[in-house]
Write a sequence for this structure.
């Protein structure tokens, strides 16, 4: 049985996997999404959120 890491690597080699990686990179460049992620990570770590 393939490990989860191996299965992820195989998925990323598929056209659908590459499409999702490109979509994630595009979303990561959006400043609004970056701020949302930063708030989520702060919340997850137990820090105050930035307003």
């Amino acid at each position: 049985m393939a490990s989860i890491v191996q299965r992820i690597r195989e998925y990323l080699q598929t056209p659908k996997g590459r499409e999702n990686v490109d979509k994630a990179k595009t979303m990561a460049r959006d400043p609004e999404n970056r701020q949302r992620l930063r708030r989520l990570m702060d919340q997850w770590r137990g820090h105050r959120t930035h307003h």
